[in-house]
């Protein structure tokens, strides 16, 4: 009796032993590729959105005590300049005889050369102003020669204001240019000048003619 032979089904790829491992491997490679691509894209996008951190270091600029050297101003309200009268000039050895004579101070027939200028305004009291910013180094009270305020300035100058009363400052005070410091009066040492201000300027301790700094 002839045995019936069952037909064998043809082998397909799915039946191959290597097929499914290959499929799984391909899927794994694909997933890894997708993850790597995603991470790369996400990293690029994050880099684009990040703001650069400033590496600048702030440096503190020291504040200068004197930004610029002040120009000296009149020791009174400049609006009154047209009414100012110079009673005694600064004694200049190179000046003419008439100017030198006007710069002599006389008391009891004793002559002294003026190291400043005596100024008056209509023979009336006027407010004395600081000619420059600085520190009050001395306030001298002397009814005979006249009270005196001395102000030291950072540029080597020193100014003195004599024949004053109603003093508004004291030693150690810081004053700004134009600040009121006193009021003019008269004194016994120079009675002929009446109510006036005796104004002196020194540079490194040496008297300077105020007329070289101010146009009286």
Output the helix-strand order.
Answer: HEHEEEEEEEEEEE
Strand content: 25-35%
Structurally, how many domains make up the residues? Answer: 2
The residue ranges in which pLDDT falls below 50 over 5 or more consecutive positions are: 1-10, 52-67
Distance between the ends: 154 Å
Q: Name the CATH superfamily classification of the largest domain.
A: Glucose Permease (Domain IIA)
Largest sheet: 10 strands, antiparallel
Key terms:
Glucose Permease (Domain IIA); rod-shaped; 216 residues; two-stranded antiparallel sheet; alpha+beta; 12 strands
Short description:
With 216 residues, the protein is of the alpha+beta class. 17% of the residues lie in helices and 28% in strands.
What does this molecule look like?
By secondary structure, the protein is of the alpha+beta class. The protein has two domains: 16-49; 78-212, Glucose Permease (Domain IIA) (Distorted Sandwich). Helices cover 17% and strands 28% of the residues. The chain has two helices and twelve strands, in the order αβαβββββββββββ. The chain has helices spanning 19-49, 97-102, and strands at residues 84-88, 104-107, 110-113, 116-121, 127-129, 134-140, 147-152, 157-165, 174-175, 180-184, 197-203, 206-208. Strands 1, 4, 5, 6, 7, 8, 9, 10, 11 and 12 form a ten-stranded antiparallel β-sheet that branches. The protein starts with 18 loop residues before the first helix and ends in an 8-residue tail after the last strand.
């Amino acid at each position: 009796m002839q045995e019936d032979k069952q037909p064998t089904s043809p082998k397909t790829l799915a039946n191959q032993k290597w097929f499914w491992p290959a499929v799984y491997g391909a899927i794994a490679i694909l997933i890894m590729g997708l993850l790597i691509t995603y991470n790369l894209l996400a990293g690029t996008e994050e880099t684009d959105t990040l703001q650069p951190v400033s590496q600048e270091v702030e440096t503190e600029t020291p504040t200068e005590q004197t930004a610029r050297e002040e120009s000296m101003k009149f020791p009174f309200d400049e609006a009154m300049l047209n009414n100012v009268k110079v009673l005694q000039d600064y004694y200049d050895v190179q000046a003419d005889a008439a100017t030198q004579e006007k710069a002599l101070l006389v008391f009891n027939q004793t002559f002294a050369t003026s190291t400043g200028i005596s100024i008056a305004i209509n023979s009336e009291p006027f407010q004395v102003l600081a000619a420059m910013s600085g520190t009050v180094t001395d306030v001298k009270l002397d009814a005979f020669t006249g009270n005196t305020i001395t102000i030291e300035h950072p540029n080597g100058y020193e100014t003195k204001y004599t024949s004053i009363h109603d003093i508004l400052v004291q030693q150690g005070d810081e004053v700004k240019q134009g600040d009121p410091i006193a009021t003019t009066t008269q004194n016994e040492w120079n009675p002929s000048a009446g109510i006036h201000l005796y104004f002196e300027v020194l540079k490194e301790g040496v008297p300077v003619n105020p007329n070289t700094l101010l146009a009286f």
